[in-house]
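Handoff note, outgoing to incoming analyst
You'll be picking up this chain. Sequence as last confirmed:
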Amino acid sequence: MGRIRILLIATAAGLLLFQTGAAMAQSGGIEVVSSSVTSEFPSGIRFLLEARSEIDIEEIAVRFRIGEQTRGEYNYLEFEQAGQVVDSELFFRTSTGAKYIPPGTIIRFNFEITDVDGNQLDTEQEEFIYEDVRFQWNEISDGAVTVAYHGPVLRRAEAILDAIIETNGIMGPILGADLEEPIRVTVYNNVPEMLDALPPGSTTIRRELVTEGQAFVNVGTLLVLGSGNQARGTAAHEVTHILTHRAGDSVFRNVPQWLDEGLSEYGNLEPGISYDIALQYALANDRLLPITSMPALPGNPEDVIIFYGQARSVVQFMVSEYGTDTMGELMATMKSGTNVDDAILEVYGVSRVELENLWRDTLGAPEFVPPNLDGLLPTPIPAPVIELFTIDSLRETGAAATPEAVEEPTPTAEPEPTSILAQQATSEAVAKAPDEPEDPAQAGQPAGGACGVPMDGGSTELFTLGGLLGLIGLRVRKKRYSP
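Most recent structure output, in case you need it:
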């Protein structure tokens, strides 16, 4: 047995030497002397590599993948060769909306070096954390979740980590989401720190709202404002977006927004009462939205908060009525590429509209009847009669009228004040929609959702005391749905 073991070791050693020699021969003697990757957030990432080769180097490239993205980046380094030594460098800019990378994101990379004879050396893959270099970061971890923080806020970071772990334990099984892939969280201590870390966005939104959290689902990264009154709830809401993306988004289509936001609010460990009030307001005033037929958030701020209230209530109904396993089956069906209509019909046995009406029935709300688009016919418009253009016809149209003949415009009426809901709905709901890019180049930034409150609000609740008092007189229906 001892001889057999020695023989096996010798054989393995010989095989290793053979493979090493073959690799050296294939690379043509190319050798990496040193390499480094440095964060210069928010400007970009700097790659440096020094190599040695007896044969002239033709190109040096770096291949890297950002977070959980399936598509990687491939970029060439600029280099100078002095004899057998080559110094190369690449600065990958991340300061634009299209190339923005959130701080804390894991970047996996390796270098490829090719000489003029076609020999190539591929380095081993390494990991790099793209940190915000303004601060010295500490980290705490639990399983696949890591929270980075700076300053004397360890207890705050621990509370956020505990909230994410608790949410993963609840929502992971419901959604059937992968909990093994890393999730990185960066905690900022105040609003100015957070603002400088966010992607380029609308200056109006930045001036009026405080972003309390943002999830970048394609890379598995979260940014959380640790000083927020409901940092635990924010972290729970945002991490559910990542889990929903992993469980239900496919290469063909994403989970519809009403279901995505409804699930995130269902996973919120510290939900406020704002959405419940908005839902009761919509019920009392016949303002319910055709929630499952809406492809995106509505444009009216008052409707936005109603949208979130309905979305959460619909998800609560789906889970309580059909069970948690059914929601996971729905996610898996959509993950396979099935559209939401076919997936709901396959899993729940009813159409999307029928599902919504079953939920409406629990609230005592009127049934939603989709418009019959097939029965709508276009209105015929008569073709204009083209006549010869003359001076007389110009006078008849009044185009040549003298200034004295022009009537002064009628003064416009003063705009009506918006309702209480519209005035207050610039918090959890409005800010959860990604910032609207100021230029088309920002459309490619990583997908994310944000939660915020008015700058002078100081609370994550959407309604002030005055708003609540204004809703006391609403006619509340007798039949209510209790989640």
